[in-house]
Amino acid sequence: YEVHFASYSQLKTIDHWAFFQCINLQSMNIPEGVTTIGNGAFYGCAYLESIVLPASMQRIADNGFALCSKLRRMNVAASTPPTVAARTFEDVDRAIPVYVPTESVGLYKAAPVWKEFNIVGRDEAPTSVENTEVDSSNVQKIFRDGHVLIIRDGKTYNAIGQEME
Length: 165
Fold this sequence. Notes:
This protein is mainly β. The chain is built from 1 helix and 14 strands, in the order E-E-E-E-E-E-E-E-E-H-E-E-E-E-E. The chain has a 6-stranded parallel beta sheet with strand order 1-3-5-7-9-10. A hairpin with a 2-residue loop joins strand 13 and strand 14 (155-158).
């Protein structure tokens, strides 16, 4: 599943344990205006593959994304690296790409915890299909612009099975 917020969202904080062990969550775009992600907010979201953090993000608390072992990509729009705790990304593969504003690459590469990741400037980010998988039933799973899309019999569906135009 993917979670999307309305463009007019007034959300400022994703509170402690908000999505705790939400195992069906695959993709999350945090809306602009959110400044804080609380303790364990996404703890144990075992199938979370993609996260997009807004420019307004300032702080991700302890265990915010702990045990999200399938996380494969992060986009962080904040120019200043958000403050994170040592265990914010516990059990997240440090080799995954973290796309940040190109002018901020140096800041992220010097920031505690962030510097452990594969920091990539946004101008180096793929702009089309990033990853493609074909399973045994000839269903193609595409990861594009932070979203999982499924192609079956020439039709495109989002992660919850709704046909896309």
